[in-house]
User: Which sequence fits this backbone?
């Protein structure tokens, strides 16, 4: 599960289903300016009032912006989730050591390589969404391409997967991604990808979908 999905589960578990769930990406320049958080007309904290605010790549926020988030979080009745990538910059320390940001509980989400049972679902979902955005129709994965992706460790986790899916969607030759499409997008195929067996569910699906031969 990615950070936004985890936050959505926390949002529902906290009984906030009728309140807003706001996702803000600190990679966007305006969010790295403290005035954005102070101004009630632009503050994501105000937009998420009584709901949940998820700040992606919060390590990109400068110290004064973190202080603004910290100050706003004391007043706003919102659940605030600051997402820090394992391979990204650390979250700046707020100047108030007793503020909600400093005292917040830290939760480490496992990387893709640590949750192999979820990887196939994450792959299919990422490429389907990338296809919808780039082509208006979901992208599928040919068995050989799926094997290659399942063999990959994804050290960059969900961000690496999403960026790969976007590159492939822009270059794929058809509605089903092939190993050649992956290579065109800069993906290095593992030497063992061709011999890695498909997960049992996919093998059964292929047998059911195989053309029948009469006689």
Assistant:
């Amino acid at each position: 599960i990615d950070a936004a999905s985890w936050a959505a589960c926390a949002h529902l578990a906290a009984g906030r289903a009728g309140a807003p769930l706001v996702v803000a990406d600190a990679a966007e320049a305006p969010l790295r300016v403290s005035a954005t958080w102070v101004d009630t007309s632009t503050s994501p904290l105000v937009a998420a009032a009584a709901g949940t605010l998820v700040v992606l790549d919060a390590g990109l926020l400068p110290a004064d912006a973190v202080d603004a988030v910290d100050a706003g979080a004391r007043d706003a009745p919102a659940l605030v989730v600051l997402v820090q990538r394992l391979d990204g910059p650390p979250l700046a320390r707020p100047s108030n050591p007793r503020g909600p940001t400093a005292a917040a509980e830290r939760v480490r989400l496992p990387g893709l390589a640590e949750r192999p049972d979820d990887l196939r679902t994450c792959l299919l979902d990422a490429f389907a969404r990338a296809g919808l955005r780039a082509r208006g129709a979901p992208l599928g994965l040919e068995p050989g391409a799926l094997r290659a992706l399942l063999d990959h460790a994804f050290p960059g986790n969900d961000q690496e997967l999403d960026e790969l899916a976007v590159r492939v969607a822009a270059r794929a030759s058809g509605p089903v991604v092939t190993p050649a499409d992956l290579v065109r997008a800069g993906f290095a195929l593992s030497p063992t990808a061709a011999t890695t067996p498909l997960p049992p569910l996919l093998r059964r699906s292929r047998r059911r979908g195989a053309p029948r031969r009469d006689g």
Remarks:
- The longest strand covers residues 21-25.
- Confidence is low (pLDDT under 50) at residues 201-215.
